[in-house]
Amino acid sequence: MNAARRVVVDKPGEHRLVSGPVPAPGPGEVRVAVHAAGICASDRELYDGTRDPGYVRYPVVPGHEWSGTVDALGEGVDPALAGRKTVGEGFRACQACERCHSGETSLCTAGYEETGFTRPGAFADYLVLPARLLHPLDDDADLTAAALLEPGAVVAAAVLRAAPRAGERIAVVGAGTLGLLATQLLAASTPAELLVVDPRPRPLEQAAAMGATEAATPERAAELRGRYDLVVETAGAPGTARDSCLLARRGGRVVLTGLPEPGAHGIDPIHLAFAQLTVAGVFGAPPAAWAYAARAFDVGLLRPAALVTHRLPLESFGDAVRLVGSGDPEVGKVLLMP
C-alpha cells in the first residue's frame, strides 16, 4: 500500500478522512496494520467536545481500543514481533518517575499522554507505537474480538484491585462493555452470588449468559443493599457510584471504573465511615492488567466477541459515532474495520 488513511477530528464536531504516506516506525517502535478499532463513550466525548480539555489534544486521530498485526519494525525491536497478532497499551508513561518505577504507569506524574487522545490512534490503516507497549496474542487469536481488550484491561485492573475470593457475594453495576467483561472475569472467581445491575433488558440477558447468577434492574437492586462483599461499578451514570457503595455490606469493597460527567451524585462520607468501606478507583490499566487481560483472552476467560453488534468501514466514522450516542438498546460494541 502506497498510501494510508486515517480519521482526523480537527475540533469537536468536525472530522475528515485523510490519505497520506504509510508511516514508518522509528527506533524502538513498531508499525501495526490495524484490523479493528472500537468506539466507546470517551470517543463520543472527544467528538462532541465534552471530554476534559486536559485529556484530549486537537487535531487528533482517535482510536484507543484496537487490534492488529505487526507490519514493520523500527531499529532495535525484537525481530520475533514481526507478523505477530497484537494489542497494545494506550498510556505513554514516562518510565522515569517514581510511580512508573513502582509499576503504576497509569499514575505517571509526567503528564497525561494516550493513544487516540493526545497521540495518533487506531482509526487508521496503520498505527505506530513503542514496541514496549505491545501485548502479543496467540497465533489463532480472533482479532475482531481482541479489539475489546482495552476495556478488558481496565476490567482486569479493577479485578486485580478488588482481589475477589471464592464464595464471595459480588455485584457489578452496569452491563455495558466494561460490565459484561467484568462479569466474565468475576465469574471465573467462583462467587457464591454474582449480581449484575442495569436498567436495559438486552444487557441483562447477556449478563445471565456470561455468568451472572442474577440480572436485575436498579429497582430490584435497591432491595439488596448492604448484601455484597465486593461491588464493581462500571456504568459511570450520575448515581451509580453512590448506589454501588449502598450495595456493599459493612466492611465491603467497592471499585469504581465508570467515569461520570461533572455533577454526578456524591458518595455519602458518613456512610463510608460508618460502613467502613474500602473504595478504590481505576482509570486506565497498568502493564500487569494488560498482561492479565491478554492471558484471560487467550485461555477463553474473556470472551468479547458476543458484545460486538456493528462493524463499519473506516469512512463510516460519522455513522459509527452516531450509533454509539444513539441510545438504541440494540447497539452494543461498534467497531471500525480499516
Fold blueprint:
Elements: E1 4-11, E2 14-20, E3 29-39, H1 41-48, E4 65-73, E5 85-88, H2 98-101, E6 126-130, E7 134-136, H3 143-146, H4 149-162, E8 169-173, H5 177-187, E9 193-197, H6 201-209, E10 214-216, H7 218-221, E11 228-233, H8 240-247, E12 248-256, H9 269-275, E13 278-281, H10 287-298, E14 308-312, H11 317-324, E15 333-336
Parallel strand pairs: 8-9, 8-11, 9-10, 11-12, 12-13, 14-15
Antiparallel strand pairs: 1-2, 3-4, 3-6, 3-15, 4-5, 5-7
Helix pairs in contact: 4-5, 4-10
Features:
alpha/beta; 26% strand; 338 residues; Quinone Oxidoreductase, Chain A, domain 1; 15 strands; Rossmann fold; 7-stranded mixed β-sheet
Walk me through the structure:
The chain is 26% helix and 26% strand. The chain is globular. The protein has two domains: 4-147 and 303-336, Quinone Oxidoreductase, Chain A, domain 1; 157-281, Rossmann fold (3-Layer(aba) Sandwich), CATH 3.40.50.720. It starts with a strand and ends with a strand. The mean pLDDT is 96. Helix 4 crosses helix 5 (177-187). The protein is built from eleven helices and 15 strands. It is of the alpha/beta class. The longest helix has 14 residues, at 149-162.
